[in-house]
Amino acid sequence: MKISSKVWLIVIIVVLVAALVGLYTAVYSRQAAERDDLIARRDRAQVLQPQLTDSKSDLEDQLVSAQSQLDTSETKFPEAIESIEYGEYIFELVERCNLVLASLSFPRPAGTKVGAVTYSVVSLSLPVSGTLENIFKFIDIIKTDPRFASTQVKSVNLNVGGGSATIAVDIYGYKG
Predict the structure, then answer these.
(1) Is 99 found in the same domain as 70?
(2) Confidence tier at 95 by pLDDT (50, 70, 90)
(3) pTM of the model
(4) Residue 102's domain spans which residues?
(5) Residues in CB range of 111: below 8 A, 6 or more apart
(6) On the chain, which terminus has fewer CB atoms closer than 10 Å, C or N?
(7) Are 77 and 121 contacting, i.e. CB atoms less than 8 angstroms apart?
Protein backbone atom coordinates (compact mmCIF):
# COMPACT_ATOMS: atom_id res chain seq x y z
CA MET A 1 0.00 0.00 0.00
CA LYS A 2 1.30 3.20 -1.14
CA ILE A 3 0.54 6.40 0.74
CA SER A 4 -0.20 9.36 -1.39
CA SER A 5 1.71 12.58 -1.12
CA LYS A 6 -1.43 14.36 0.11
CA VAL A 7 -1.64 12.02 3.08
CA TRP A 8 2.06 12.56 3.84
CA LEU A 9 1.52 16.29 3.67
CA ILE A 10 -1.41 16.07 6.09
CA VAL A 11 0.57 13.83 8.48
CA ILE A 12 3.53 16.22 8.41
CA ILE A 13 1.24 19.20 9.03
CA VAL A 14 -0.49 17.39 11.93
CA VAL A 15 2.88 16.46 13.47
CA LEU A 16 4.15 20.03 13.07
CA VAL A 17 0.97 21.48 14.56
CA ALA A 18 1.18 19.01 17.48
CA ALA A 19 4.83 19.92 18.04
CA LEU A 20 4.04 23.65 17.93
CA VAL A 21 1.09 23.19 20.31
CA GLY A 22 3.31 21.21 22.70
CA LEU A 23 6.08 23.80 22.51
CA TYR A 24 3.60 26.65 23.05
CA THR A 25 2.06 24.86 26.02
CA ALA A 26 5.47 24.23 27.61
CA VAL A 27 6.58 27.84 27.14
CA TYR A 28 3.25 29.22 28.34
CA SER A 29 3.19 27.04 31.45
CA ARG A 30 6.75 28.06 32.33
CA GLN A 31 5.87 31.74 31.87
CA ALA A 32 2.69 31.28 33.89
CA ALA A 33 4.73 29.72 36.72
CA GLU A 34 7.22 32.62 36.59
CA ARG A 35 4.34 35.11 36.59
CA ASP A 36 2.76 33.40 39.63
CA ASP A 37 6.15 33.46 41.43
CA LEU A 38 6.62 37.16 40.63
CA ILE A 39 3.11 37.97 41.85
CA ALA A 40 3.76 36.10 45.11
CA ARG A 41 7.08 37.94 45.59
CA ARG A 42 5.42 41.29 44.85
CA ASP A 43 2.70 40.53 47.42
CA ARG A 44 5.33 39.65 50.06
CA ALA A 45 7.24 42.83 49.26
CA GLN A 46 4.06 44.91 49.57
CA VAL A 47 3.43 43.37 53.00
CA LEU A 48 7.03 43.99 54.15
CA GLN A 49 7.38 47.48 52.66
CA PRO A 50 5.52 49.40 55.44
CA GLN A 51 7.44 47.52 58.15
CA LEU A 52 10.75 48.20 56.42
CA THR A 53 9.84 51.86 55.96
CA ASP A 54 9.08 52.15 59.68
CA SER A 55 12.33 50.36 60.55
CA LYS A 56 14.27 52.65 58.23
CA SER A 57 12.70 55.69 59.85
CA ASP A 58 13.53 54.37 63.34
CA LEU A 59 17.11 53.61 62.32
CA GLU A 60 17.51 57.08 60.80
CA ASP A 61 16.25 58.59 64.07
CA GLN A 62 18.72 56.45 66.02
CA LEU A 63 21.51 57.55 63.68
CA VAL A 64 20.65 61.23 64.19
CA SER A 65 20.55 60.69 67.97
CA ALA A 66 23.85 58.79 67.98
CA GLN A 67 25.49 61.44 65.78
CA SER A 68 24.25 64.14 68.14
CA GLN A 69 25.60 62.24 71.16
CA LEU A 70 28.92 61.76 69.38
CA ASP A 71 29.14 65.45 68.52
CA THR A 72 28.30 66.36 72.12
CA SER A 73 30.91 63.92 73.43
CA GLU A 74 33.56 65.16 71.02
CA THR A 75 33.08 68.75 72.19
CA LYS A 76 33.88 67.64 75.75
CA PHE A 77 37.22 66.23 74.65
CA PRO A 78 39.80 68.44 72.97
CA GLU A 79 41.40 66.98 69.85
CA ALA A 80 44.86 67.80 71.14
CA ILE A 81 46.01 68.34 74.66
CA GLU A 82 47.93 71.59 74.49
CA SER A 83 50.29 71.64 77.45
CA ILE A 84 50.70 75.42 77.23
CA GLU A 85 46.95 76.00 77.54
CA TYR A 86 46.48 73.53 80.37
CA GLY A 87 49.60 74.87 82.08
CA GLU A 88 48.15 78.37 81.93
CA TYR A 89 44.81 77.11 83.27
CA ILE A 90 46.50 75.31 86.15
CA PHE A 91 48.67 78.30 87.09
CA GLU A 92 45.59 80.53 86.94
CA LEU A 93 43.71 78.20 89.28
CA VAL A 94 46.68 77.88 91.65
CA GLU A 95 46.88 81.67 91.89
CA ARG A 96 43.09 82.00 92.27
CA CYS A 97 43.11 79.48 95.14
CA ASN A 98 46.16 81.05 96.86
CA LEU A 99 48.22 77.88 96.51
CA VAL A 100 51.84 77.22 95.63
CA LEU A 101 52.55 74.73 92.85
CA ALA A 102 55.89 73.02 93.49
CA SER A 103 56.38 71.74 89.93
CA LEU A 104 54.56 71.09 86.67
CA SER A 105 55.75 68.94 83.81
CA PHE A 106 53.73 67.58 80.92
CA PRO A 107 54.66 64.07 79.78
CA ARG A 108 53.92 62.89 76.25
CA PRO A 109 50.30 61.83 75.79
CA ALA A 110 49.64 58.09 75.94
CA GLY A 111 46.91 56.40 73.93
CA THR A 112 44.06 54.76 75.81
CA LYS A 113 41.35 52.79 74.02
CA VAL A 114 37.86 52.69 75.51
CA GLY A 115 35.59 50.50 73.38
CA ALA A 116 36.06 51.65 69.78
CA VAL A 117 37.31 55.13 70.75
CA THR A 118 40.96 56.00 71.30
CA TYR A 119 41.84 58.87 73.61
CA SER A 120 45.15 60.56 74.20
CA VAL A 121 45.79 60.85 77.93
CA VAL A 122 48.22 63.07 79.80
CA SER A 123 48.74 62.10 83.43
CA LEU A 124 49.83 64.96 85.66
CA SER A 125 50.98 65.13 89.24
CA LEU A 126 50.19 68.49 90.83
CA PRO A 127 52.07 69.03 94.12
CA VAL A 128 50.40 72.02 95.79
CA SER A 129 50.68 73.60 99.21
CA GLY A 130 48.43 75.99 101.09
CA THR A 131 45.47 75.80 103.40
CA LEU A 132 43.27 72.71 103.31
CA GLU A 133 40.31 74.89 102.37
CA ASN A 134 42.17 76.27 99.34
CA ILE A 135 43.37 72.79 98.31
CA PHE A 136 39.78 71.51 98.38
CA LYS A 137 38.66 74.61 96.45
CA PHE A 138 41.36 73.86 93.82
CA ILE A 139 40.20 70.24 93.47
CA ASP A 140 36.56 71.34 93.21
CA ILE A 141 37.36 73.84 90.45
CA ILE A 142 39.29 71.21 88.47
CA LYS A 143 36.24 68.93 88.71
CA THR A 144 33.70 71.62 87.72
CA ASP A 145 35.48 74.13 85.44
CA PRO A 146 34.41 73.61 81.80
CA ARG A 147 38.03 73.99 80.65
CA PHE A 148 38.72 70.78 82.58
CA ALA A 149 35.64 68.89 81.33
CA SER A 150 37.89 66.16 79.94
CA THR A 151 39.96 65.96 83.13
CA GLN A 152 39.57 63.26 85.75
CA VAL A 153 40.99 63.60 89.27
CA LYS A 154 42.58 60.18 89.85
CA SER A 155 43.83 60.56 93.42
CA VAL A 156 44.63 63.05 96.13
CA ASN A 157 47.41 62.43 98.65
CA LEU A 158 46.77 64.93 101.38
CA ASN A 159 49.28 65.87 104.08
CA VAL A 160 46.90 67.37 106.65
CA GLY A 161 49.62 68.50 109.07
CA GLY A 162 51.80 70.17 106.44
CA GLY A 163 49.04 71.78 104.35
CA SER A 164 50.11 70.14 101.13
CA ALA A 165 48.70 67.66 98.66
CA THR A 166 49.71 65.84 95.53
CA ILE A 167 46.80 65.65 93.12
CA ALA A 168 46.98 63.14 90.27
CA VAL A 169 44.86 64.05 87.23
CA ASP A 170 44.37 62.59 83.79
CA ILE A 171 43.52 64.92 80.89
CA TYR A 172 41.77 63.15 78.01
CA GLY A 173 41.87 64.21 74.37
CA TYR A 174 39.84 62.68 71.53
CA LYS A 175 42.02 61.19 68.79
CA GLY A 176 39.20 61.01 66.20
Answers:
(1) no
(2) very high
(3) 0.52
(4) 83-174
(5) 118, 119, 120, 121, 175
(6) N
(7) no
